[in-house]
Write a structure and sequence with these properties.
Helices cover 29% and strands 15% of the residues. It is of the alpha+beta class and 405 residues long. The two termini are 28 Å apart.
Length: 405
């Protein structure tokens, strides 16, 4: 399905119609050869929609075509929304990002730091006190010392597994279980992907006195007219599904979003559409406002999209493999702000972009970036977790080659 965008609109946005077709054709070819089920691509530049294409299938096995209003599990593209929520509370004086997390979640007051070693994994786990408290800023930039179970070290992972950190717990219970575990790293020392934003979600609940779904709905989604964005449940007939994997004969396992969730994950829980997420991105590109709604000041957006990683910060062992050319590491010329990866250098990264562009992605295949220098917003919605890296890279390359003015 094609959503009509006029040739004049494409050209006024500074794109070549013919070159932009390369992007659409590349995705159509991959749908036709069975590499992916389908996708929604949405590009906006200079305040104009330049591309809005629904390609392939919402559900290949059901023969259901992709549509512009298809809902996607956006997983970690939830994190920037939670980061905006926290910064709204900071602007209201309800918290400072320099505050210790334990000021809001006392269960983190006694947390220790695991000491991994090169000895046999059967050796007892040892720990040491934190050299400084974990702060809200650490949660926002992933330097809290928290991790995900599958990224934990060999002796810490069994503790994460035993804690049963699953979707059957409320945010309060989830955080209480997590706080009983030692941190993987000293706070501030290491960029490590993990449950930092989920803990931030609980901070938002405690500070605001609202459940996370209600805060998001009342303070962000309603003002921005993001009517289709929520934690669910959703009608199955609107949700994109991954296709059956030829090697396993099964669909990759994604969250069942037709049921009312117990865990309101600030790190991975939202459903959204390309059009809704565009409105969130427009708010950021406009310095915190969209229409009559102002969520943040321009100064706060500038703070969020600056690099917050300190000199000499270390990185989790899997970081480069997980994020490829877009990993937030110095050799890529990419740092990390308060909820986003931020490009800091011209060159270094193998993919096109501008200094100051910021982005993030979701494990199921979703991806977005905002390039203030180019006045560009690019959004890819897809449910193809095993192919996600290739299409993040492809999207970058084919969007920038189409910009001619």
């Amino acid at each position: 399905m094609t959503i009509e965008v006029s040739r004049a609109s494409v050209q006024e946005a500074g794109f070549s119609v013919e070159r932009l077709q390369r992007l659409v054709d590349a995705f159509r070819r991959d749908v036709d050869r069975g590499a992916i089920p389908g996708a929604v691509i949405l590009l906006a530049r200079r305040g104009r929609i330049a591309c809005h294409e629904a390609i392939g299938f919402r559900d290949r096995e059901a023969g259901a075509p992709m549509t512009a209003d298809t809902l996607f599990r956006i997983y970690s593209m939830t994190k920037p929304i939670a980061s905006v929520a926290a910064m709204m509370l900071a602007e209201e004086g309800m918290l400072s990002i320099a505050d210790p997390v334990a000021a809001f979640l006392p269960e983190f007051a006694e947390v220790d730091v695991a000491v991994e070693s090169d000895h046999a994994t059967a050796a007892p786990m040892t720990s040491e006190p934190p050299q400084r408290p974990m702060t809200v800023q650490d949660l926002l930039r992933h330097t809290s010392g928290l991790t995900y179970a599958h990224l934990a070290g060999p002796r810490l992972k069994p503790l994460y597994d035993a804690a049963a950190l699953n979707e059957e717990h409320s945010n309060a219970d989830f955080v209480a279980r997590l706080a009983r575990l030692p941190l993987a790293y000293q706070p501030g020392s290491t960029w490590q992907y993990g449950f930092s934003t989920d803990v931030l979600g609980r901070v938002i609940e405690v500070v605001s006195g609202m459940t996370l779904d209600r805060f998001f709905a009342d303070r962000i989604f309603k003002p921005l007219a993001m009517h289709d964005t929520s934690f669910g449940p959703a009608e199955a007939g609107r949700v994109a599904e991954p296709q059956i994997d030829a090697a396993t004969g099964k669909r990759p396992p994604l969250r069942d979003v037709t049921k009312t969730p117990i865990w309101l994950s600030a790190g991975s829980g939202l459903l959204s559409t390309a059009s809704d997420y565009l409105r969130f991105c427009e708010m950021l590109l406009n310095g915190g406002a969209l229409g009559h709604a102002r969520l943040l000041s321009p100064a706060t957006v500038a703070l969020m999209t600056a690099d917050h990683l300190p000199p000499g910060v270390a990185f989790g062992a899997q970081t480069r493999a997980m994020f490829g050319a877009l990993a937030p590491v110095p050799e890529n010329g990419i740092g990390f702000g308060l909820g986003f990866a931020v490009r800091t250098q011209t060159g270094r990264c193998a993919l096109p972009g501008s200094v100051g562009d910021y982005s993030w992605s979701g494990v199921s295949g979703t991806y977005f970036w905002i390039d203030p220098r180019e006045e560009l917003i690019a959004i890819l919605m897809m449910q193809a977790p095993n192919e996600r890296m290739r299409y993040r890279h492809l999207m970058r390359a084919l969007v920038y080659q189409a910009i001619v003015g």
